[in-house]
Amino acid sequence: MSKWNPTINIALAMLLGTSVQARTWTSTDGPKTFEAELKAYDPATGEFTVTLPDGTAMKFNQEKLSAADITFLKEQGKQPGASAAVPHAPDFATQIRPILSTYCFACHGPDEAKRKADLRLDTRAGAIARNEDGEAAVVPGNVASSTMLARLTTSDKDERMPPKAKPGPNAAEQALLRQWIADGAPYTEHWAFVAPRRPANPAVKDTAWAHSDLDRHVLASLEARGLKPQAEAAREALIRRVSLDLTGIPPTLVEIDAFVADRAADAYERVVDRLLASPRYGERLATPWLDAARYADSHGFQQDDERSMWRWRDWVIEAYNADMPFDRFTLLQTAGDLLPDASPETILATGFHRNHRISAEGGIDAEEFRLESVFDRAETTATVWLGLTMNCARCHDHKYDPILQKDFYRFAAYFDSIDESGIRSSARSVAPVVRLPRSANAERTTALAAAVTAAENELATLKSATPPTAAAMLAAAQSSLTAAKKARDAYAREVTEVMVLKDRAKPRETYVLERGQYGHRGERVEAGTPGFLPPLPADAPANRLALARWLVDPANPLTARVQVNRMWEMLFGTGLVVTLENFGGQAEPPSNAALLDWLAVEFREQGWSTKRLLRTIVTSATYRQSAAAPAELIARDPANRLLARGPRFCMTPEMIRDQTLAASGLLVERLGGPAIRPYEPASSWDGGEGSGNLNNYTPATDDGLWRRGVYVIWKRTQPPPSMTTFDAPSREFCSVRRLRTNTPLQALAMFNDVTTSVAARMLAVRIMGEAATPEERLILAMRHVVARRPDANELRILTAGLKRRLARYATDPTAAKTVLAVGNPPPPPTFPPAELAAYAQTCALILNLDEALTRE
Amino acid sequence: MKPFDSFYDSMLRRTFLKRSAGGIGMMALASLLGRDLGAAETVSGGGLPGLPHYLPKAKRVIFMHMAGAPSHIDLFEHKPQLDKLRGTDLPASVRNGQRITGFTSGQKTLPIAPAHWPFKMCGPSAMPISDLLPELQKIAGDLAFVRSMHTDAINHDPGMSFLQSGSQLPGRPALGSWLSYGLGSVNLDLPAFVVLVSRGAGRPQESPVYDRFWASGFLPGEHQGTRFRAGNEPVPFLASPNGVAATDRRDQLDDLVALNRRHEAALRDSEIAARISQYELAFRMQTSVPELLDLSKEPKEVFDLYGPAAQKPGSFAWNCLMARRLAERGVRTIQLSHVGWDHHENVVDQLPRQCAEADRPTAALITDLKRRGLLDDTLVVWGGEFGRTIFTQGGNNGRDHHPRCFTIWMAGGGIKPGTVVGETDDFAYNVVRDPCSVHDLHATILDRMGINHEKLTYLFQGRQFRLTDVSGVPIGGVMA
Q1: Cβ separation A730–B212 shorter than 8 A
Q2: Are A849 and B263 a contacting pair at CB < 8 A?
Q3: Residue B464: its pLDDT value, please?
Q4: With contact defined as beta carbons under 8 Å apart, do B11 and B169 qualify?
């Protein structure tokens, strides 16, 4: 995350002095060293050039170097002898402001209380203002008179800024500042706070490659760096990629074959349209939104009882499936209760803001915890819609963004008048609630009705039977009919309570909390939005409906950008703005600002349609590139920020689970309903005894074992290990970005989870049924999991391994039977255990392939 | 020197990229490569360049969190002059408008209840320690007490969160995560941050502690604490499925590695190399963790020292013994969370039970570390998330939460033995000398580990975050 700090983006090459002596360089892990002289270093890309003792020049990326070497390189960049090639007229928003923000704003920024020397550098007026001595930090056009530069570069410890030997701008950054002042020190607003406009279409040399304006923006940036995009990915790879991305489920063999054989020009587009129309699409899209909404199936805190918010979760899935426009999606979840046409369904949507934790701890101050929920809603809204770290302004004015402490409380005031308590006394939902029939579970209703019909038929058959049925049997049939009817009727009467928003008749008074501390009331504030963003309409009421409309107003510079950036990250692994959660002054500027703005405008102008947005992206040539690329390109752009190759990154745990189940044929595709309990370690909920009603984790005995990851029961204090091991958040608070780690616990989970064992066994059963020879079967196993056929070498490894396992289990039938006995369902009895075990263990390793865990 | 491609390829084989550097990933690599390299000093467990900032006094921490908050009044605050005030109302001037919890805020009176048990003055500084802790009394000369701790929280969840992560709100990395991130690990086969949880007899129904208290927050997930449990499943998913022997797994792994390497050659993504290493480490953990937990080779005198409960997996005594074994293996942060100190009623009954169980293993751990020479570079910290009230809660000798003062102790690497820092007022209610915040405690721990707490930071949401937020000064009085 900190890998891309704002200064690295400055496009600037440093030419080093000639007197740099030869040096021993060490690779990242230490073992590899070589002697060479440093010739040039470009902090923008991390590229550096060295000359070897034999005179050969070589170019590397600093990624390959030990930390000490990187430090050395950065130090070289600061040498006074280093000359910097400064572009004419550096861009304030992307080049100057990040420098000022990093080194100066903490004391000379928006936070008035902490401002030193009465100097602020975040506004031009502040920067050029003259003090009592007639001096100014910045004198436009006059570098020599600008005290800021003098203070940044002086060797006098008492004078030097930043103080206390804190790191300051390096030579390159100083050069930029110098040039900027010489150019007249123009200020522009922070890029993200200016509404996006459709950028001009860039000129590109290669006119054949681009499918759309999206591609032209990418290509222009590649051509500017002398790079070329990769060829389109192989068809198997492409259909796997797009199926996982849009539905979270790998393609079936039929779907793969059809696509590979389809030579029509729009073959790919038709695949995309089919995927977008699948009910599985909503389930896939819901997952990131559930993270953002901190959705869980328990209340959180120590008394972590089960709660019932799944009707809200199903609402999200259905909204995505119906392609509800994002502005409507926003309106309903923020203020569905305040709409003129409010209905139970629109009120249900406001459950978004009741997904926060609710404590039942004895002795807490309910008002303190209620306020905590209010602040949580404000912070969540700011993160999810605006990409603002508004929580930073809870105790003081924001250090980097123009958000006053007062703004935080004004924003929170929108959520302060909910008719609620901050504490609960039971496991049940806490008012306000909406009561809804369990209509999401239509299958259950149908099944219960069918049971009644069956019982009726049975009774009728018995009654008309000759010879006459014994009275006892008739009575038994009668009573089972009665029972079936009772179950059906009871279910029909069942309702679910979902926690939602409802304002009190009389609004609460909201106060600033001094230093953010409960009980320390400051001035009273009215609900409102931050002053630096476009104003609300003059006649806007001070309620959530006005807030929701403001969030999706075309003048709002943030909402559309933040949303398209999240979608981009979902498909490419990294956002155009890396920090999905922060678009403020400390965020790294977008890797392709024009592209981000193009997407944001396009999204809004296409009616906020998420499906259209995704279609635009996944049908682009950019998205369709192969993930394989030349070593030079990968070394130059390890994180693929330039998009000169296809995206490749580890799948989400939900996706891994769904793929494992789909490949084995176990996946049960049914939308919605209460949470499921898959196989998890038996100890998952241990240690929670006596506190809360979720204890002694027991896996389901029904098809809940085989349903999708999005439905897995989420106990906040002990979230499912199969999910958190693969970086799912705890859902205790809003999270819009999952980090991706690579740990041994993931390897253990993948190999040893009961679900993997069962899926491997059922995949073995499947391929043994589908083909006759070991080779054919193993090819099928690979295709079910990674969509492609193994090459000859891979097939050789797989068949040799299979042979060894066949021999092992032939001599140890007990081991074979033991392996096959793990989990449910048991294998069909017709399969010879030794053979099935050998295939199952081979399938298990296929399910563990790096390629299987990666969408590429 | 070879052309770029070969250099890159050799790097691929030999290295990891940044993302896994620092945590278990790097350990795996070092472990894999250690043998190739031959030089022990090049085996590194990750960590940040430039750390430690200065010569560390301690290489590892054992953080004994007494969850629920023990009564400093009964255990460490000898106030004999209060006996004559027993049962009288706490003077308003002492409380001075301070917040009290919902448990007692409705009470008409706040009757004073000094310690229920006698004290002995122990060690060179005559530190009063309750007779409930006879074993601790004996080793007082090894400990440094801080009687002037205070915290911002008055409820358990925020209080524990504050003690573990420096913030009352969830989402910040735990102390052990910061240490893993900053210093890495020296053990190649175990996680850098291990957590052991036990439940005391003092209050069996007490609220548990949860995974979030040792989460890595915004730091990468490999720095999160790994909880080792007693029983068949010490780490989730550790055991291979029934019928899969280690040789079977090795056989699968060999094929898996061969296939992954082929894919790596085609894709040139270093993440694949990282994945291979993690699978290898996982395989080794399947051996190293059961070996760690297997006490069959511990001699009888060890169990005599820790007490018979040390034979019982998951007990506090077993966890204490495990802490020593983890320290021996170089694990960076070992956290014991012992539940059962939240005595809102019947302190007279519950506290002796809780102490009887905890006293001996606690002292045994110090003694055991000391005689093995491990105490010299192991920092041990003992304490709850806050203190308890001098006044009675309810009608049955309860004590409510008290954030204004409480007592903790430290021992081992870089700690001055036999010292006492701070003092409370006549009612053990307010700190009157050398107040120490939770941030100060964290700053002290980091300092002893060779870290300047202001300089171990992580950029998140545009801000450099640190364990000690915006304050914290190492507690000079306890430092050797």
Answers
A1: yes
A2: yes
A3: 86
A4: no
Task: With respect to residue B420, please indicate whether it lies within any of the assigned structural domains.
Answer: yes
Residue B34 falls within a domain, yes or no? no
pLDDT, one tens digit per residue, over A812-830 is 999 999 999 999 999 999 9
pLDDT digits (tens, 9 = 90+) for B189-228: 888 999 999 989 888 767 778 777 888 888 877 788 888 8
**How far apart (Å, rounded) are the C-alpha atoms in residues A29 and A25?**
12
Q: Within the 288-327 window of chain A, which residues sit less than 8 Å (CB to CB) from chain B?
A: 301-304
**Shortest Cα distance, chain B CAs vs residue A576, angstroms:** 16
* Chain B neighbors of A25, CB-CB under 8 A: none
How far apart CA A327 and CA A549 sit, in angstroms, is 8
Measured N-to-C along each axis, helices A235-247 and A279-292 cross at an angle, to the nearest 10 degrees, of 60
Q: If you write DSSP's letter for every residue of A707-741 in order, what string do you get?
A: S-GGGB---TTS--HHHHTTT---SSS--------
Which range is least confidently modeled, A422-426, A438-442, A475-479, A816-820? A438-442
Would you give the DSSP letter of residue A696? S
A45-66 tens-digit pLDDT: 566 666 665 556 666 666 666 6
Is the CB of B17 less than 8 angstroms away from the CB of A849? Answer: no
Looking at the domain assignment, is residue B248 inside a domain? no
Q: How many domains does chain B fold into?
A: 1
Spatial CB neighbours of A306, under 8 Å, sequence gap ≥ 6: A297, A298, A299, A427, A692, A693, A694, A715
CATH number at residue B56: 3.40.720.10
Residue B92 resides in a domain? yes
Which residues contact residue B238 at a Cβ distance below 8 angstroms, ignoring those fewer than 6 apart?
Answer: A748, A752, B285, B286, B289, B290
Chain segment B411-440, per-residue pLDDT in tens? 999 999 999 999 999 999 999 999 999 999
Q: Of the candidates A1, A363, A747, which has its C-beta nearest B103's C-beta?
A: A363
Question: Domain span at residue B374?
Answer: 47-239+299-478
